[in-house]
C-alpha cells in the first residue's frame, strides 16, 4: 500500500496494491477509484485537496472488498 500526496497537482493518491489499472471511475466530484482487470478496487485518488471544505482524513475512508458490477450483455437477459 502506498500513499502519495502531490502538492503541485493538489491531489492524494492511495495505491492499495501494485497492479495495472485498467479502468478509473469518478464516483464523486474529484474522487476517482481505480480498478484492475478483475474489477477489484486497487487505488483511490482525491483531487483538489486544498479546495476541500474540510481536510481529507484517511481514517474517514472505509473500504470493503467488492467487485465492480459488470454490465450484462443483451444476450444474457432473459424475458420474465
Mind explaining what this structure looks like?
The structure is a single chain. The protein has strands at residues 2-6, 11-15, 23-28, 31-35, 41-47. The chain has 80 residues and is mostly beta strands. The protein has one domain. It has a 5-stranded antiparallel beta sheet with strand order 1-2-5-4-3, with no helix packed on it. A hairpin with a 5-residue loop joins strand 4 and strand 5.
Low-confidence stretches: none
Q: Averaged pLDDT, please?
A: 82
Domain count: 1
The description of the largest β-sheet is: 5 strands, antiparallel
Q: Distance N terminus to C terminus?
A: 45 Å
Outline type: elongated
Strand content: 35-45%
How many distinct beta strands?
5
N-to-C series of helices and strands: EEEEE
Structural class from helices and strands? mainly beta
Total of helices = 0
Describe how the helices and strands are arranged.
Layout (H helix, E strand, L loop, with lengths): L1 E5 L4 E5 L7 E6 L2 E5 L5 E7 L33
Antiparallel strand pairs: 1-2, 2-5, 3-4, 4-5
In short:
With 80 residues, the protein is an all-beta fold.
Amino acid at each position: 500500500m502506498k500513499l502519495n500526496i502531490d502538492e503541485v497537482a493538489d491531489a492524494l493518491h492511495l495505491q492499495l496494491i501494485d497492479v495495472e489499472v485498467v479502468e478509473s471511475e469518478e464516483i464523486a466530484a474529484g474522487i476517482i477509484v481505480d480498478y484492475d482487470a478483475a474489477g477489484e478496487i486497487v487505488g483511490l485518488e482525491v483531487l483538489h485537496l486544498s479546495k476541500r471544505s474540510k481536510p481529507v482524513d484517511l481514517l474517514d475512508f472505509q473500504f470493503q472488498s467488492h467487485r465492480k458490477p459488470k454490465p450484462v450483455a443483451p444476450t444474457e437477459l432473459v424475458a420474465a
